[in-house]
Amino acid sequence: MTRVALLHTGAVVIGPIASAVRDALPDATVVNYLDDRIVADLGDERRAASVPERVADLVRAARRGGADVVMLTCSSISALAGAAAEAVGIPVLRIDEAMADDAVAYRRIAVVATLPTTLRPTVALLRERAERAGAVVEIEERLVVGAFDAVVSGDRDRHDALVVAEIERVAPGSDVVVLAQASMASAAEAAAVDVRVLSSVAPGVARLAQHVSEQEGRDG
Q1: What does the buried/exposed string (b/e) look like for 68-94 if buried means 16 or more CB atoms within 10 Å of the residue's CB?
Q2: Fewer CB atoms near the end CB (10 Å): N or C, the chain?
Q3: How many CA atoms lie within 13 A of 125 on its CB side?
Q4: The pairing of beta strand 108-113 with beta strand 69-72
């Protein structure tokens, strides 16, 4: 039986993402790992340098626990996937990579985030995937002040209202809107806009399921 490890930086996404993975891979065992100080520490110059090794340590723990694949569920640490996979010797996927691949099919991309530590790596990922695809993109960055504090305090309704308002402001000048954090997914369906609003969970989990299927096919 395949064991999937999910590496989180916020408790708020554990339930929804783990549930999505179980739905997509009903025969897999899902294990969650959490370091809920990573996002804060990325913004702290005294501690930011510790994050890559902490992520690698969690990936090592997952491998010791029998994981066959790890998925990083936070865009703030997506850029660390390759180094962690190489250091530990286990596949490490990025939940937002499939979303980025969808987004770069469009020219004008608006990225909406609730944290600067997620906005920057999401934009970098989009540029990476655009280059890989040979696509020319224009990226507009939008930070929703107050939304992250709202969701952390348990006020999901306020978080979603702030995010939806920003989506609706930026959409008229965009071909697609990208939500930089998995925790923003609940706002995607509520926005009344004429362009696609992409969030990472569904495409990321679909890519994970594809990886597992291909791996089981090779091993079987």
Answers
A1: bbbbbbbbbbbbbbeebbebbebbbbb
A2: C
A3: 30
A4: unpaired
Give dist(CA 134, CA 101) in Å, integer: 11
Residue type at position 95 = I
Write the CB contacts of 204 (distance below 8 Å, at least 6 apart in sequence). Answer: 71, 73, 93, 94, 95, 96, 97, 98, 99, 182
Please write the tens of the pLDDT for every residue from 158-174: 999 999 999 999 999 99
- The CA distance from 13 to 9, in Å, is 9
pTM as predicted: 0.92
Q: Which amino acid is at 89?
A: G
Q: Which residues of 176-201 are buried (b: 16+ CB within 10 A; e: fewer)?
A: bbbbbbbbbbbbbeebebebbbbbbb
